[in-house]
Amino acid sequence: MAIFPGGGESSGRFRSAAAHYLAGRPEYAGLLIRRVASLVGLRRDHAVLDLGCGPGVLARAFAPLAGEVAAMDPEPEMLRVAAEFCAGIGNIRLVAGGSGDLAPSLGRFRLVAMGRSFHWMDRAATLRRLDALVEPGGAVALFHTGHAAVPVNAWADQFRELRRRHGGDAGDRVGPNGASGVGWVRHEAFLLASAFRCVEAHSVFAQGEVDAGRLVDRAFSMSGTTPARLGDRAADLERDIAVLVRDMAPDGRLTEVIESSALVARRPGEAVE
Q1: Top-tier CATH class for 3-147+175-205+258-266
Q2: What is the pTM of this model?
């Protein structure tokens, strides 16, 4: 699969995390993908942009529902993983670049999807650039996954604390729809101040199981606890995660309920009925 140049440069923040994304991160619910596609009237003659695509999870999910998907990321290692993950899917093209490289040459899109990437961007400037790329009737959709506030997820607080203690959580404290700590402006504020100011939220809940190995991959996929950032301390985090799982689940498998959510933002008067 070819990678088309986009002119952007990667900070390298996620280079060592790339190999752990697919193994560690929760999946976006298929029902949510189909719901968003229906909301925006996505058809096989439409194009989708997966901006900040990482390993191409959203690109691959939307490929059967669209004519073409452009998967764009500034990190070369992420694009390499995406090329492997999306191999054989003929309507996905990989583009090297970030939000600063958005230009009319990319094409016009019915949907621009972002999965946990919008908070890394200049959000106001990105939305202004996207206004020139999203076709009439199209939308911007911000996807997120996180632990739902239900009793079976009680262990997730301890998992977050382990990551914080071992490496910090810079950039990973962003919660559903961009919620974060003091001084953080939620994504909705930027959407409401943009051309895409008709905003609605959708969520799908799914219960599954996770073991220590997958939680290690999940931790290593996050910016505060990448293998490169942790260095020799990576083994300590891996050990403590194994202890957490052993203490919380003697059979080695923790139950988790994942909320897959999407903020879908459209221009006034352009909603698909």
Answers
A1: alpha beta
A2: 0.91
Alpha-carbon span 73 to 134, nearest angstrom: 18
Q: Could you tell me the two tokens for 108?
A: 């016009």
* Cα–Cα distance list, 52 to 8, 61, 118 (Å): 12, 15, 8
Please, which residues bridge with residue 70 across strands? 49, 93
Closest CA to 12 of 122, 102, 98, 112: 98
DSSP alpha helix (H) spans, 7-106: 18-24, 30-39, 57-62, 76-85
Residue ranges per structural domain of the chain: 3-147+175-205+258-266
Distance CA 208, CA 202 (A): 20
Over the stretch 56-109, which tens digit does the pLDDT of each residue have? 999 999 999 999 999 999 999 999 999 999 999 999 999 999 999 999 999 999
Residue type, 257: V
Cα separation values, 199 from 52, 111, 160, 170, Å: 21, 14, 30, 27
